[in-house]
Amino acid sequence: MIPVSGVLLSIILTTAYSIPVTKHESENMDLRMPDVKPQQPDTYLCYPMKMDGPATYITGFVPHANMSTAHHMLLYGCADPGQKNEPWNCGEMMDSEKKGSFKPGPICRSGSQIIYAWAMDAPQLTLPEDVGFKVGGKTTVQWLVLQVHYKDVSSFLPPNTNTDNSGITLVTTTKRMPKRAGVYLLGTGGELEPHSIVYMETACTITDDIEMHPFAFRTHAHTHGEVLSGYRIRNGHWTEIGKQTPKKPQMFYNTTHQDLVVKKGDILAARCTMNNDGDTTIPIGPTQHDEMCNFYMMYYVNGDKLSSDGYCFKAGPPNWSWDDFGASLHLESAPSDISKLSAVDNTQDGSTMEDFSGEQEMTSNLETISGLQHFLQESLDSEYGSEHSDPARVAGFTQRESEAWREYIRALLKLEAEQALDDLENAYDADGYVY
């Protein structure tokens, strides 16, 4: 006969050791376009993914796209997406695609927030330890929506039969992250007058009673952007969040100050320094021929409460500038180098420059010589044949050629500018043709 105490002990031990252990699973989740064939340049397509099950934390992003086809990709969190079963046209070019195969609709019907952005062949992003974007479960993010802006659709048009599956691999875990990630976006409307340097500026006061810890930033502009910079202003003191040229891969970079905190009452401000040396006015708009001024601040909070308003947009020039914000911005204390890049690595190949104006001047000098030689020798002849080797034809660069040209210029910046010019000038006769 077994003593009662022994039976009780046996039951207690058996029960204790049969309690299931919570297993936190890590998983890579693919959100990619399902072999779509956009038919017009500057088409914006969206594709959804339902976040079923418990709360999931996104801790990394692996992009799958090529800048020759995709102008940019955005990942949104939605309470309710624009569509639920198939790709749809979700951009401001919807009217041009109404007769196409993609139905028009908004990105999100409710609960929209930006989670991630990619452009210019930016590499993958891994968040800091213990930081993650919380989605699914009881959060307001019940759907993820991938948006791809297609700038070149020639490979999808007849007689070509190519399709596209650009997208993102999400690195996720069900393990609770103590620091919840969010994105705060500053941007402007406005326009760029011809032959002018334009400052596109925005600023907003934080009204939420939270503490945001910025750890990464990203800049986005099109061909006229030179320097984009963001700041926190507190009690008249300006502290840099980040500064970069959008001509570099438009990835998320480490913030200037990793210990920076943004809290209620602080002001967030951003400026896009633009250079329009053309003869026409360039508006802010959705196409690659328009412009954009966007400064993304990625941050975390300790706990669950994110900023209730993740956007700060102003009308931009000529209707709004920092002068219109008021005395609390303390413009008299603003840094003098807002539109300059200090001696930092701001080119893809690792070369340095004192500020962007130096690169701009050098690029202008090299444009007619090195740019023409590069395409005459490597792009135009091989792609189109020798009948296109007239330098006058190079003014009509395709997007692919323009991107290759910029890479070539970056490489030349590592050389002595005068020597590079001398060497290249010797390759041209008096009429500007290659010998």
Which descriptors apply to this entry?
eleven-stranded mixed β-sheet, five-stranded antiparallel β-sheet, 435 residues, disordered N terminus, 4 helices, alpha+beta
Question: Could you explain how this protein is built, in words?
Answer:
The protein has helices at residues 4-17, 356-384, 399-412, 417-425; strands spanning 26-32, 43-50, 56-64, 70-78, 80-81, 88-89, 108-110, 113-119, 125-126, 131-135, 143-150, 167-173, 179-188, 191-192, 196-205, 211-220, 225-234, 237-244, 253-254, 262-263, 267-276, 282-283, 294-302, 311-314, 344-345, 352-353. With 435 residues, it is of the alpha+beta class. A hairpin with a 6-residue loop joins strand 25 and strand 26. The model is unreliable at 1-23, 93-99, 344-398 and 408-435 (pLDDT under 50).
Separation, N- and C-terminal Cα atoms? 108 Å
Poorly predicted parts: 1-23, 93-99, 344-398, 408-435
Broad structural category: alpha+beta
Report the β-strand fraction as a percent range: 25-35%
Helix-strand pattern, N to C?
Answer: HEEEEEEEEEEEEEEEEEEEEEEEEEEHHH
Rg is: 26 Å
Let me know the largest β-sheet. Answer: 11 strands, mixed
What's the β-strand tally?
26
Principal-axes geometry comes out as globular
Number of discrete helical segments? 4
Chain-averaged pLDDT: 79
The residue fraction in helices comes out at 10-25%
